[in-house]
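cache lookup: miss for this entity combination. No prior model stored, computing from scratch. Input as submitted by user K.M.:
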Amino acid sequence: MVDVAVVGAGQTKYGNHASGLKGMWAEAAQRAFASIDGDFDPSRIDEAFIGSLAFGGSQLGNTAALLTEHSAMDGIPVRRVENACASSGFALRDAWMAIKSGQADVVVAGGIEKMNDLTPERRRYWLGVSGDTEWERLAGLTFPGTYALMARRYFHEFDSSHDDLVHVSVKNHLHGSMNPLAHIQKAVDFEKAANGFMVADPLTLYDCCPTSDGASCVVLAADHVAKQFTDTPVWVKGSGAASDYLALHDRPSITQLKATQLASSRAYSMAGVAARDIDVAEVHDCFTIAEVLATEDLGFANRGEGGQFAREGRGVLNQGDVTVNSSGGLKSKGHPLGATGTGQVVEVFKQLRNQADGKRQVDDAETGLTHNVGGSGATCAVHVFGRERS
Amino acid sequence: MVDVAVVGAGQTKYGNHASGLKGMWAEAAQRAFASIDGDFDPSRIDEAFIGSLAFGGSQLGNTAALLTEHSAMDGIPVRRVENACASSGFALRDAWMAIKSGQADVVVAGGIEKMNDLTPERRRYWLGVSGDTEWERLAGLTFPGTYALMARRYFHEFDSSHDDLVHVSVKNHLHGSMNPLAHIQKAVDFEKAANGFMVADPLTLYDCCPTSDGASCVVLAADHVAKQFTDTPVWVKGSGAASDYLALHDRPSITQLKATQLASSRAYSMAGVAARDIDVAEVHDCFTIAEVLATEDLGFANRGEGGQFAREGRGVLNQGDVTVNSSGGLKSKGHPLGATGTGQVVEVFKQLRNQADGKRQVDDAETGLTHNVGGSGATCAVHVFGRERS
């Protein structure tokens, strides 16, 4: 079976963009191509998968083709992949399978979202419809409210309090302050992050990711052509994905995400690694509590000890076994829904090639992980990457 | 490399449905499972791909997971695949690649669209955004208008007139009258179809497909497990897909679809067949002119002779070399956008197993084709099927 490598990866800065969908996508693709050794010829691309929840720029259908048309990928099979905030995590999986299937040698996986030209009212609509509609949204539950419920229950079940979430926020802002592509490049101290204005009790402003525009693009290649593009490929060693009930009330527990547990165990197993082998992990922290739960579901901390993991700074850059969200994560780097999954790959690609700019390089990063969640956990894709092919 | 078979396929009747997304999807899945020999256990399904433009039932994001949750496909990786009206044609391709990749043995490809609980104004919005927005939609061009431009140009370039389109309409209504799952089960005569009220000159009511709700579901299996599910699998012998410029003005010609030409040549080549080998073809006739162009782009007629092909009744059930749209096609069977592509497979599956109900069985149908187009041709997926594995 063919092995698959990441040979190029790039993204726009996340934040408020004046440019629209086509401009953002072209920039991300251009940066991905520029990261490839020598002059990359886009006609080498056989197929493309682009993740987006709603694109957001008025063009809703067939937009994947519009984007490849505007980035010199003429005539190739291309489609949108959608799983809410996990859209491009699944685009990556599907691109990886396309190469594994023997049908394509060079495949693009990417993602994009334009959030900031939607009116605030429309924006709430797009976001809200990724959770359960029938039981949650129509009863008034928004995403901050959904994750606030998880946080309250977590504090009730385990030795944890909002202070643990503050530690996550401080860490991710610190990392983001060193990332020139982050939406928010500003460190905050504990005092400030602990006293943000309330959004959904107990979650404050500093517990919630910002509303970002952005695009990201990853170029994958089959083992037999990878060396044509770079001497330092990053290998996709494992891919795992799963789904779960949309509505919280259908789940046996709301302090763990079954989809994350399933997806990560599948990815670890395929890669032949364990959680302790991961040096750098880009984790889906749409809210700080999500990172606490993910550190447990991914196996970095024992069940119920995710709060303690945060409190002890075990995910801080080069301070523990694993650096969590060296990019700043969704909290600080930003969260342009569809772009987030492949944007995480951009960071891991840099880290494993020792190219992380802005002093946020993880020492001796050999094995990386990306964790991309849709909505409140109905879908999840986890990928494991390595500097070595096997 | 593993071969892939269709072992089950089912769909709802197309039309106006009282049931919502979950009900329609469960019905299509149930019918697909029922078409499998013996009792099918849905836990055998490893992965799923569901095509939809907009779902249409208020749940916009993560909806693929909501649907698999409600059809006993718990925990599996699932995602929405979107390419406007070609969404489930691409879902089929991606499901096929998932099996070819060795990552899955049993995969579901399906599609769904709920059109009729959108207000007329919203419905125009969903539909319109699948064409080019910047150059076409904002200038007032709708889909009937887009295809009307193609028709006018076709009549200008070649020996053809609106009468040829009437023949397509009469044929597809005749076929649809024999399909109990068709939205419109009513034959029309030439006189009536020639005198429909004008929609977009020269296209009348009888040149345009209806607005349908519906869902379709196809179960694919790897060669080494296919026999566990049926003694009469239908093999996917070739898959081809392509893209093209969204806006008509960017294309060298608007009387042919480059995406159809590319996709079909790739599918024929992989299957080792030529157009003349196809016995039954489900062709994307969102408007009658689209079928005329497709008969040329797919190679059933020479360039410029698609009108003559229709005029001579060469696609009528068992009258020529190939039966075109034995189901009634989009014109008569209906067009629930995301459901259409895998719905075409439902028909070919029945035809190749000699199980087409309602007297529309194509004699000695051994090789079939599905042709699914996104928007006005920006995306296209073509698949070739056969009774024999090789």
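stored under new cache key. The longest strand of chain B covers residues 234-243.
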